[in-house]
Design goal:
Distance between the termini: 41 Å
Shape: globular
Structural class: alpha/beta
Family: Belongs to the Gfo/Idh/MocA family.
CATH topology of the largest domain: Dihydrodipicolinate Reductase, domain 2
Protein name: Myo-inositol 2-dehydrogenase
EC number: 1.1.1.18
CATH class of the largest domain: Alpha Beta
Number of domains: 3
Strand content: 15-25%
Number of helices: 14
GO molecular function, one term: nucleotide binding
Keywords: Oxidoreductase
Largest sheet: 7 strands, mixed
Radius of gyration: 20 Å
CATH superfamily of the largest domain: Dihydrodipicolinate Reductase, domain 2
Length: 362
């Protein structure tokens, strides 16, 4: 099997190295907006480097992994579908809803395979939590607490391209909550703080955010995220039920220190970043994609299935702007109706405070 990887930054290089070691992948080809970077990564892992993404589609491959900057995702998803290639795309599909929905519909119309990159679905802890909930071990789950904390701010140039803290980081928690519990989010209330470094304000983003979510069965969830957790990279999920309580991400490398008289110490060292914390999950995710392409496995995260987490992210972004709870259905209707019908059927505060998120409808 011949698989192309477009985008050779941190995650693209990691995926490429994983595929280069895979027993069912005969050749890995790399492409990047910077041909020199693609050549450097190819030299390290024994892959072939192309001069740019278009060469991938001109020369063909069995499948393509899209790990380019998010703004390039929609056009690459469409090109892959047009060329009959199965595609794996890092989340999200796009930075705006018109591009996202257009890419998803065109991919589906072409009958193409599209798998989205929510790697927590492949993490051993999240898998075990899902099994515990689904087995009834916890009883009725009444509370969930999710944490995503980066160990340090990303480069200032990345922030305007990321889609923001909510869509870039918290979206993983939104997907994991629904996937683990089997309950969709129905309402969100979110706030954010840009009180830290000025580059966040300059990018129109926040460095810290929190959301209170209501799930369909009445479970209440809190999701907090920050870019600036100096203690280390910290991703956890706690689930509390009427019978038991469990946690994902609590272990020797959790960057947390108790100040109780008899503290429970986590000896460390703390996780440095997402690649170190979720390395095994990323590898399992790529193996699943290879098996999907070979027809051995049903798609574990189809493109349209990933929309649920994106709608929650949109609801949180809108909630932060309008300073009130937003129903997920309201946000989804806002997205779909604006795209196809134009403004006029939406709460006035959403239209007034978030007009720049929506182009004129066709």
């Amino acid at each position: 099997m011949r698989i192309a990887v477009i985008g050779t930054g941190r995650i693209g290089a990691f995926h490429a190295a994983t595929l280069a070691r895979h027993a069912d992948v005969a050749e890995v080809v790399l492409a990047d907006a910077s041909p020199a970077r693609a050549r450097e990564v190819a030299g390290r892992i024994g892959a072939v480097a192309y001069e740019g993404p278009e060469e991938v589609f001109a020369r063909g491959a069995d499948a393509v992994v899209i790990a380019a900057p998010t703004g390039a995702h929609p056009s690459l998803v469409v090109r892959a579908a047009e060329c009959g290639m199965a595609a794996f795309c890092e989340k999200p599909v796009g930075l705006d809803w018109p591009g996202t929905l257009d890419a998803l519909w065109r991919s589906r119309k072409a009958g193409a395979v599209l798998q989205l990159g929510f790697m927590r679905r492949f993490d051993a802890g999240y898998v075990a939590a899902r099994e515990a909930v689904r087995s009834g071990r916890l009883g009725r789950v009444h509370t969930a607490r999710a944490v995503t904390s980066g160990a340090g701010a990303p480069p200032a140039g990345y922030l305007p391209l990321s889609g923001g803290l909510i869509a870039d980081c918290m979206i993983h928690d939104f997907d994991a909550l629904a996937w683990v519990t089997g309950q969709p989010v129905v309402e969100a209330y979110a706030v954010g703080s840009d009180a830290g470094a000025p580059e966040f304000r300059a990018a129109g983003d926040v460095d810290t955010a929190a959301a209170v979510l209501t799930l369909a069965d009445g479970t209440l969830a809190t999701v907090t995220a920050t870019r600036v957790n100096g203690a280390g990279y910290d991703v956890r999920l706690e689930l509390a039920g009427e019978r038991d309580q469990i946690a994902v991400g609590t272990g020797p490398r959790t960057p947390l220190r108790s100040v109780e008289p008899e503290p429970v110490e986590f000896p460390g060292p703390p996780w440095r970043d997402f690649l170190e914390r979720f390395g095994a999950a990323y590898e399992a995710e790529m193996d699943a994609f290879v098996r999907v392409v070979r027809g051995e496995l049903a798609n574990p995260c189809p493109g349209f299935a990933a929309l649920e987490a994106q709608y929650v992210a949109e609801a949180c972004a809108l909630s932060r702007r309008v300073r009130r709870p937003v129903r997920i259905a309201e946000a989804a209707h806002f997205v779909g109706a604006w795209r196809w019908q134009g403004p006029g059927k939406f709460p006035a505060d959403l239209v007034a405070l978030a007009p720049e998120r929506w182009p004129e409808a066709p």
